[in-house]
């Protein structure tokens, strides 16, 4: 039912490095439709748990069913959409507070250690790829925040996954990839601050990687995750 991996896995380091690993590269119709539905899910225009009707999307997006079904299948693989027998598609339910806390516990146990290992084995091409992926290119620039936010959510997923890849433990990487952490947590709060602050923290991580400073990388990752958790947890008090 679900594809084994999110679409944003592997091949980072094989790319030409340079700018951010493009997700919109050569966007054809299928990609455009995917992006449109992805943005609606991340901006909660399709709220967690809500039914998703293919016919409605056909009308809204003015395309045929085929690219929509394709996009929904891809989103299902990413954990954002759930397909239920005889019911059809719906947006994945919001994570619970307990699950959210477990998720951050898991990340705090694994990601600082992996960041330290990534720092110790950092190479120039890996650092270049990480710098491209950190999302700092999304900063400011008068870009519409609503357009920028879903992009940042994906960029954050790629950045963290890349650190795990460089960290070198495939099982840790798969375990975290299967949680679809980023898409779930970013749906919790739609706020500019989340992006700006997280970018500062990514820069601190990049500095530690550039210095190949294991302790600094561990600390920077720990601080980033703790702040991220604290930024998002008020969403459960609403
Ligand atoms: Zn991050």
UniProtKB/TrEMBL annotation:
The keyword DNA-binding applies. Residues 1-20 are annotated as: Disordered. Residues 27-94 form the HTH gntR-type domain. Pfam families: FCD, GntR. SUPFAM superfamilies: GntR ligand-binding domain-like, Winged helix' DNA-binding domain. One of its GO terms (molecular function) is DNA binding. InterPro entries: GntR_C (IPR011711), TF_FadR/GntR_C (IPR008920), Tscrpt_reg_HTH_GntR (IPR000524), WH-like_DNA-bd_sf (IPR036388), WH_DNA-bd_sf (IPR036390). PROSITE patterns: HTH_GNTR. Keywords: DNA-binding, Transcription, Transcription regulation. This is DNA-binding GntR family transcriptional regulator. It comes from Ancylobacter vacuolatus.
């Amino acid at each position: 039912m679900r594809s084994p991996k999110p679409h944003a896995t592997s091949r980072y380091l094989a790319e030409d490095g340079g700018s951010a690993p493009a997700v919109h590269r050569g966007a054809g119709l299928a990609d455009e439709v995917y992006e449109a539905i992805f943005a609606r899910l991340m901006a909660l225009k399709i709220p967690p748990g809500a039914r998703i009707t293919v016919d409605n999307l056909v009308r809204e997006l003015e395309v045929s069913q085929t690219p929509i079904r394709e996009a929904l299948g891809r989103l299902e693989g990413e954990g954002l959409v759930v397909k239920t027998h005889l019911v059809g598609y719906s947006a994945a339910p919001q994570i619970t507070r307990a699950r959210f806390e477990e998720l951050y516990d898991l990340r705090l146990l694994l990601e600082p250690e992996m960041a330290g290992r990534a720092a110790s084995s950092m190479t120039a091409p890996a650092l270049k790829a990480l710098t491209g992926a950190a999302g700092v290119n999304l900063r400011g620039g008068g870009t519409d925040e609503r357009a920028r936010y879903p992009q940042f959510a994906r960029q954050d997923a790629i950045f963290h996954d890349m650190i795990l890849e460089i960290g070198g433990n495939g099982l840790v990487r798969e375990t975290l990839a299967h949680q679809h952490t980023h898409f779930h947590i970013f749906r919790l709060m739609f706020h500019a601050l989340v992006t700006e602050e997280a970018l500062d923290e990514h820069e601190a991580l990049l500095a530690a990687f550039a210095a190949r400073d294991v302790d600094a990388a561990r600390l920077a990752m720990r601080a980033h995750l703790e702040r991220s958790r604290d930024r998002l947890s008020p969403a459960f008090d609403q």
